[in-house]
Write a structure and sequence with these properties.
The chain is an alpha/beta fold. Helices cover about 45% and strands about 15% of the residues. The chain has a 5-stranded mixed sheet, with helices on both faces. Strand 3, helix 7 and strand 4 form a beta-alpha-beta unit. The longest helix is centred in the first third of the chain and has 26 residues. The chain is globular. The two termini are about 35 Å apart.
């Protein structure tokens, strides 16, 4: 519980600290020296870029037991074998949830040859002091279109959260809603770059934390594309509920390389992706107690 709570509590406290530290520096309150000392963690973080850390991931291993984490790879040998030979994939993950604890657990539990696959995160997450260093241990890169194109052209595979922060506000313990119907950019990118898409489903992300879906903080989160709204879990505190999590990596869609795909091409393969996501959900939801009663909606 303690390790998992570090991330959720940090998401709430870091913005408050950054604002107060900035104000203290500007006003030099209560003194110039005191304000600098108070703001020192922020100032140091500004100078240090986010970096992946195997040591940090090992320290996060207690989360696997806390969440009773399980990973299923439907086509593991094929995907890992092709990756070893230079094949590039977009691992398309959903749902996002308030914080992707399933994704964190998967990063902790990854085989060594898959550790090189980074996760694309909103640009703002990689710029916020302290938060960028905390989350950066999970091997993050910028989710901008130019960054993803560069990654696929020069380095290899990447994991993308298709619904992004918009999907955060669809989190519910009663039903499962994906922000997907209009998210087709990743399909267009994959077709253009000759990269296949592998659907990844994160069972548990939408149930371990509940979120305030309205209000100024919720609106700010949507604008900044970062989880800056109010959320709660166990005992109505920012502690994630200790419920089972399941990480399911599906089979590659088998997409072709089309340099200039038409809208028809994009719609076709987006439809294939949606079908595979629904198949994964219906096949494996019985393994997760909180999901047995859930219905999947693609918005």
């Amino acid at each position: 519980m303690a390790v998992a709570s570090i991330f959720s509590i940090a998401y709430l406290l870091i913005p408050t600290y950054l604002i107060s530290a900035t104000v203290a520096l500007v006003l030099r309150y209560p003194s110039t020296k005191s304000s600098i000392l108070y703001a020192l963690p922020m100032l140091i973080s500004i100078l240090i870029p986010p970096r992946p850390s195997r040591l940090a991931l090992r320290l996060c291993r207690p989360m696997l037991n806390y969440f009773d984490f399980e990973a299923i790879y439907m086509d593991e040998k094929n995907v890992r074998g092709k990756m070893a030979n230079g094949k590039r994939y977009i691992f398309a993950a959903q749902p996002h949830g308030v914080l992707s604890f399933v994704g964190m657990c998967a990063a902790v539990n990854k085989p060594e040859d898959l550790e090189v696959v980074p996760t694309a995160a909103a640009s703002v997450v990689l710029k916020i002091p302290l938060l960028k260093n905390l989350m950066g241990v999970f091997n993050l890169i910028d989710a901008s279109a130019s960054s993803l194109k560069r990654r696929l052209k020069t380095a290899g595979s990447v994991l993308i959260y298709i619904g992004g922060i918009a999907e955060l506000f669809k989190s519910s313990r009663r039903e499962e809603r994906l922000y997907l119907a209009k998210r087709k950019g990743f399909i267009k990118l994959a077709l253009r770059e000759g990269t296949d898409v592998v659907p990844v489903y994160l069972f548990g992300n939408t149930s371990v934390l509940s979120v305030l879906k309205k209000g100024p903080l919720a609106n700010l989160s949507r604008k900044l594309q970062a989880s800056l709204t109010v959320f709660w879990g166990k005992w109505y505190l920012p502690i994630p509920r200790d419920e089972k999590m399941l990480y399911v990596v599906g089979k590659p869609l088998g997409m072709p390389h089309i340099m200039d795909p038409t809208q028809e091409d994009i719609d076709k393969w987006h439809g294939v992706y949606c079908e595979q996501v629904r198949h994964i959900f219906e096949t494996y939801k019985e393994k997760v107690p909180m999901y047995k009663h859930k219905k999947l909606f693609i918005d």
